Amino acid sequence: MGRGKLATPGVRVRTAQSIEIDFYYRGVRCRERLKLAPNTANRRYASRLKSEIESRIARGKFNYAEFFPDSPRAQTLSRRAGDAITVREVLRLYIDTAEHSLQRSTWLDYKRSVDSQLTPAFGDLNLSELTRAKLREWASGLDVTPKRLANILLPLRAVLKDAAADEIIDRNVLHGWKPEIKAKLRDESAIDPFTPDEIRLICAACDGQVRNLVQFGFWTGVRTSELFALRWSDVDWRHASVRVQRARVRGETKTTKTAAGVRDVKLLPPALEALKAQRTHTELVGGEIFHDARTNAPWSGDQALRLGPWRRALRTAGVRYRYPYQMRHTYASMMLSAGENPAWIARQMGHADWGMIRRTYARWMPDVEPNAGEKASSWWAKNTAQNLSKPVTKSDQSDAQTGPKVTKIRSQRNCKLLIYNDILAERAGFEPALGINLNTLSRRAT
């Protein structure tokens, strides 16, 4: 069929393989071609499409990019620029521009998330087509931990935040929201500390500089990236401490993970012993404290340690494999289980909030303190024996019915009250685990 008008005004055959639709939008005459052979069925389809377009225009619901995504007018006549910009385009632009503003290791992680996860899943969508329902459906099919999912979404959060601020999209669908997924029962980053016996076996299976590094890691709790970046100039021998102020990831030295990460770490005797043993290896050279003996150079990152000496040491020791980062978790668990001040542990490890320490680590390694609970048991046994010969009074009967009088905090006026409870408990003669003043109760019982 040649060129000519069809029955519906504004619908015309342009070529042997296309039909043109002619309409007005925002005062502009628009001509768009449909790549359809002009047979009867396709001409009817074009007529219905034009009617739908005009109906939506009349109702203020027309989205140019939805009907003609490849048209040059899609960007200029769309209600929002996000109707015509794809997720792939904004993510690529973000990665290209962020290369010089982000830490190299962070940028590489973001690029990996964009290339392997976000672009394949959402790249062909227009920015305004991205919805929470689509994100939720995608997340439900991933075999990752909630933490890993949050990290994957970081580049997308950044571009959506900027797009909403620049009015490219009506709203940021990730603002104040995250797709929920079921946590995996076990993953590589799960907290799985070593026991004291395992620590001894691992250290015994290491020698030379590797032993010094591992022993120091177990007894300082520094992050592995911080461990590799420590320098001899950071050591304060007089006060038995080391200043943590940088990290080393994939061969690049950068600042610590957080502002609270810059700190002075007290060196406990095992850590100090390891540091003194390391002096003969690298102190005269200066620079980084711990070197890879195979290269006589500072460690570039945890992969070289993890895939080499660390894996061999655990195999030799007969200890179940865990990542080197578990040295940090082990330190926190040991210190907390031994009764050390949670606030002090948080400062040692570079955390701004001590609450995370208690919530995360308190349940681990009960065998570090095998006598836990015996103070209260001994008090009970002692005073029960003393009270067997005492006559029962009405006051005693009343106490037995109502229980001990405990002063309760009736309002959460200040979360610091909880901090003071643990910090000052032992000084005041309290047993922190029970919240009971054993000395006072003992005097009352006698």
Question: Secondary structure elements and their pairing?
Answer:
Elements: E1 4-5, E2 11-15, E3 18-25, E4 28-34, H1 40-59, H2 64-67, H3 73-77, H4 87-98, H5 104-122, H6 132-140, H7 146-152, H8 154-165, H9 196-205, H10 208-218, H11 224-229, E5 235-236, E6 241-244, E7 247-249, E8 252-254, E9 263-266, H12 269-282, E10 291-292, E11 297-298, H13 302-317, H14 326-337, H15 342-349, H16 355-361, H17 374-387, H18 394-402, H19 416-425, E12 430-431, E13 436-437, H20 438-445
Antiparallel strand pairs: 1-2, 2-3, 3-4, 5-6, 6-9, 7-8, 10-11, 12-13
The low-pLDDT segments are: 1-6, 396-446
From the spread of the alpha carbons, the general shape counts as elongated
The helix/strand class is: alpha+beta
Query: How many individual domains?
Result: 4
Report the β-strand fraction as a percent range.
5-15%
* The CATH H-level homologous superfamily of the largest domain: Intergrase catalytic core
Question: Whole-number radius of gyration?
Answer: 33 Å
Please give the share of residues in helix: 40-55%
Overall mean pLDDT: 78
- Main β sheet profile: 4 strands, antiparallel
Q: What is the annotated CATH architecture of the largest domain?
A: Orthogonal Bundle
Number of helices: 20
How many strand elements?
Answer: 13
CATH class of the largest domain: Mainly Alpha
Here the CATH topology of the largest domain equals hpI Integrase, Chain A
Spatial order of the strands forming the largest sheet = 1-2-3-4
Q: What is the first-to-last residue Cα distance?
A: 112 Å
